[in-house]
Amino acid sequence: MAEPSPPVRFGILGCASIARKVARAIRLAPNATIVAIGSRSMEKAVGFAKENGFPATAKVYGSYDAVLDDEEVDAVYVPLPTSLHVEWAVRAAQKKKHVLLEKPVALNVKELDSILAACESSGVQFMDGTMWMHHPRTAEMKEVLSDSQQFGQIKAVHNILSFAGGPEFLKNDIRVKPDLDSLGALGDLGWYCIRAILWAFDYELPKTVTAIADPEVNDSGVILSCGASLKWEEGGKLATFYCSFLTTLTMDLTVLGTEGNLHVHDYVVPMNENDATFHLNRISQIGQYGAGNPVSSDRVITTDLPQEAIMVKEFCELVDGIIRNGAKPENKWADISRKTQIVVDAVKASIDKGFQAIEVVY
């Protein structure tokens, strides 16, 4: 029997709050381990490593470059502010480190193309940190949507992702700072909404994107809430989304087909770590005295690992194939990220151009 491959060795660039969740995911994934953490402050890096249960052997650095220069690091997780992604993801790729990059991956597709070109040139794996994509519920929902007899043709997708940031968040969080994350709610939350829409439509890009008028912005012009509609050229397909830092926590996704509809109320982060539910309903019309007897069901999908640990595990499987077996990087994830970024860019362009319809070009 062949011996199992050694775990993929991760370095983490930065001590962002989301890095706590992914550091735990790396510890939970059976094929990953943390070997280094880097921050601009040595004191902050030391504290982060202690607070998050890093192995005693993990190295702590007072710079990001030191992590990239560490020959024991196979891959890096990059949770830095979006404005720093292009610099540090490109540097990581040039150092032959595989890149797990927090979303939104870039401020625009031009920056993302620089990242992807660097990864391709160095032959390293790229994946973004959209965790819900890796939950087994997502795969099961896709099976339902792909069943033409059960669901029919998908006609519309609508989703909302929001949380009430509160005064401290709206004043000091990096996601409302124009020099750090200038896309604001569109980048942080709209990324998920757009990804869900593209996922439902098998990553077929819309023909046009039109932002809904009058998004809310802060004094620096950073988007706090916005929405958009997306239209496809054929089949009468459309989608809408709303994302906001100003309304109560909502993670609703609805997919409407000619034969059924699918609802999930926690599509980004399941309410329970080890099980997740979606609702499937089939009824063609409302009866005279009510909705009749719809064929509906709640489907519960269980998992031993949280979705972020599954994401890390799947990323490491790809990395291991490259390192141990000479496999080529899986380009699917780069393509999905690029399509998501293109639509984010189109929404922003529509806002900037007075809510005109923007034609989407790959």
From TrEMBL:
InterPro entries, alphabetized: Gfo/Idh/MocA-like_OxRdtase_N, GFO_IDH_MocA-like_dom, NAD(P)-bd_dom_sf
Residues covered by the GFO/IDH/MocA-like oxidoreductase domain: 146-262
Please list the residue ranges annotated as the Gfo/Idh/MocA-like oxidoreductase N-terminal domain: 8-127
**GO MF, one annotated term:** nucleotide binding
Family, per entry: Belongs to the Gfo/Idh/MocA family.
PANTHER family, alphabetized: GFO_IDH_MOCA-LIKE OXIDOREDUCTASE N-TERMINAL DOMAIN-CONTAINING PROTEIN, PTHR46368
- What protein name applies here? OLC1v1017546C1
